[in-house]
Amino acid sequence: MLNKIVSATFFIGFCLLLAAGNDFSSLVKEGDQLYQQKRYQESLSKFQEALALTKQESRHEVLNKIARALLKLNKFEESIPINLEAIQLNPSNFAAYNGLGNAWLSLKDYQKSLQFYQKAIELNPSYAKAFNNLGINYFFLGNYEQALLAFDRSIALNPDQIETYLNKAVLLSDWSKVDLALEEYDKAIKVSPRNEKIYYDKANALVGVEKYEEAVKNYDLALEINPNYIKARYNKLLAYVDLKKYPEAIETGEKILALQPNHFKTLNSLGLIYLEDAKLDEALRYFDLATKANPRFIEAHSNQLNALFKTKRYPEAIQAGEKILALDPDHENTLFNLGVIYQNLKDYTSAIQYYRKTLAINPKNEMAYKHLSELVRYFK
Questions:
Q1: Can you point out the beta strands (E) in the chain?
Q2: What's this model's pTM, rounded to 2 decimal places?
Q3: Which of 80, 157, 311, 378 is most exposed, with the fewest beta carbons within 10 Å of its own?
Q4: pLDDT tens digit string along 82-141?
Q5: Eight-class DSSP state of 75
Q6: 187 in Cβ contact with 159 (< 8 Å)
Q7: Is residue 122 within 8 Å of 93, Cβ to Cβ?
């Protein structure tokens, strides 16, 4: 009888352990799936639940996942002790050293992050991600030669890692080697021809060297893959503006607004196009929509002020200027423009006040100095 009781107790314990193991595996799997879906807060919760069930020998692996999710949530400081605990449990944990590097890189302590990336590579010389991150680190330190070597090593280890091609292209563009940067984008496209971000980044690089027609073609390629890619549509609009192809820019802007009616940058850009075309009422309509979509968007308020000034609607222009100064009391252009408006209204006392405020912000503002000098001489 006693043997049967012991056997039954053992069987129940075994079943409980088996169930806990299944729960642990399910939680980790769910956390991984949520992470891949970019649902980082939910994935973090699953990993934290899994940690409570994990065995000591695999605890460091779950800690790695928790730290990675925290980084994605921009909780850089919180990820540091998690990675340190993972290293304490497994001193050869190269992923945790890489995670520490990522945390310190995000906190802009590039010397600290450099040490951790180097340690990760020392522990695993075939760790392509760490070489990629090392390249980013050297880029921020301004050491382009070492950054290039690190990116090349990362690509040699993992030719399918798209991120590294893109990082190398950014480095080369910043190094004024745009032709070489474009080659890196093309290499990335060969690896992943249906990745819209590659075409988008390539288009941005082309804009940087004023190759607007080619840029538009690449924005279109990005949009073929993802028609809802608002950033690509907006930058395409700007490229058309640079080409002075205003009808195409307006058409592009209208497509953006069909997808996102309150896209304040597009509203502002359309206002500028109509302002350039001297269609002031239409320009004002779009600037008004832009400021309503984002009341803190100073650029739209400033453009609205300029349009109101051109139509000699001075009281409304003053109101627009006051809204800007409520957001930024030291906005130099607005202070100067208000001085000009008050001068046109023959309110010379207010005009002098705003010119002086302008010069207090920027003593080298020649136009403010000229207007102020003329008014002061006049009143003498």
A1: none
A2: 0.84
A3: 378
A4: 999 999 999 999 999 999 999 999 999 999 999 999 999 999 999 999 999 999 999 999
A5: -
A6: no
A7: no
